[in-house]
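ok so i was messing around last nite and threw this chain in just to see what happens. nothing serious, just curious
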Amino acid sequence: MDALTRLVHLARPQASLELRCQLHGSFAVPSDARPNAVPFHLALGGRCVIDVANGSSLVLEAGDLVMFPKGGAHCMRDLERSTNKRTPLQLSHDGMLPLEHNAGAGGSTPDVDLLCGRFDYDKGPAALLLRNLPDPLHVSLAETPSAPALQALVTLMHGEAERRQPGALAIVTALSHALFTMALRSYGQQHPDMPNMLTLLSDARLAPSVQALLAEPGRDWTIADLGEKAAMSRATYARRFHECAGMTVLEFLTQVRMTMAANLLTQTQRSAADIGMEVGYQSEAAFGKAFQQSMGMTPGRYRKQERGEAVSEARA
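result:
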């Protein structure tokens, strides 16, 4: 299993489509912060601007995807930032999803046509992947080697959304999960010089060592061991790793171990001591201290909290 597949599998993202937006002329659609989810917008057609809470802006074009891994607040607007003659938004239904639109929707081609939704995830196991991603994460189909595959996926999603045949929502939702993974891979390909988790996973020379580390997080790894798998000297490997990941090898190893431990705590009945041994800690005390520093609570409290939340969600 490759490194990206393993991390996506641990995070277990679940796509939920919430809304379709077809907008004309002058518009502004704000979106509040959602710290416990990853909101996303897929442009099926047209263009718009997304203003981010940090003051930056990006242009979303047909086929583009933008995600907010940290759930940041943002606002979708027209290209001109016009404030005159804004028509109030209306909410109806397009036969598959709630449809937010302004005057003109349902007639002429909209200036922007968006599928909007969110990815829910297992908070502890997802931390390694999500907390090291840029927010927002913007993927352009025109600037990646995966462009043909991404374009085909978006075209299929667009067709299902337009035809709205039986099962269309289930199909588009399932395809959204594939889009999530393809977008992560494509972002790493588009931004090879930007230190983050996706750059690390996309680096061909480092990939064998990262896969080995993910496969055996409990092994007593040294930089020399990992450098050998990458055919690099110890110093060259450490420098290259930091340039790609934006963190040291030890920091990454610790995050991997805590991610694996969080997954085992919620998915198994195994003791904290046993889990600690599997992820590389020789005593329950050492594991508990490392887990507390990383996750902000003891392994026992984490397990109780996460299972309590799961029960509450199941009853709801």
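not much to say yet. The longest strand covers residues 38-52.
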